Prior knowledge:
By secondary structure, the protein is mainly alpha-helical. It has one domain (61-224). 79% of the residues lie in helices and 0% in strands. Helix 6 (131-163) packs antiparallel against helix 7. The chain is globular. The protein starts with a helix and ends in an 11-residue tail after the last helix.
Amino acid sequence: MLEVLILAITPILIVLFYVFLKDKYEQEPLSLLILSVFLGCLLVFPAIIIKAQMNYEFSNIFFNCLYKAFILSGFIEESLKFLVFFVLIWFNKNFNEKFDGIVYAVYISMGFAAVENFYYIYNSEYLFQSKLDVAFSRAILSIPLHALCGVAMGYYFSKAKFELKNTYLILALIIPVFSHGLYNFFVIFENNFLENSLKITFLLVILQYWRVGFKWIKEHSEDSAFKNEDFNK
């Protein structure tokens, strides 16, 4: 059981630590980072309630997968993260450089991912998988997906904030929703319906998303208002 707990929490800590280190010119208050993670954790519970209320089974399995992936997972989960970010961070004085958007969005996402991770591992018997299998698959797939959605959301939140273009706020929601939904669609749909060629295509899309995600992190990390300040030398 110890190895399951380690596998469940380690990738989340790695993501949090990595983003924290990339914020090298003006790091955020620890109290606000902890609050972001905590609120992200709490989001799982309204997400479960809303999903239960909106759960619907289509007779067509394709549309059923689309609905569960893009609406029940992608839209509901990413919209809740978006809402917490906007209420907690958007007007906060500490949101004063572009990389801050990525930091806070990722921390909120990792809080959500942590609780969701333990929820799925705890209920792994219902998935007919061992706890270790579920923890491993989520460590290499689901946790990075939540992190990348956080990067995308934070990237466009910052562009909206500092470039004064409200259209970026729409992208801050649409891109994570679409990315999250696409990932879930392939996970739900793959076992019986996807050909190997489509699975390879999906893998290439995920790898490309990783490349773009790291590019966004580098872009906003280096585009810091505090980069040339004397106290950061």
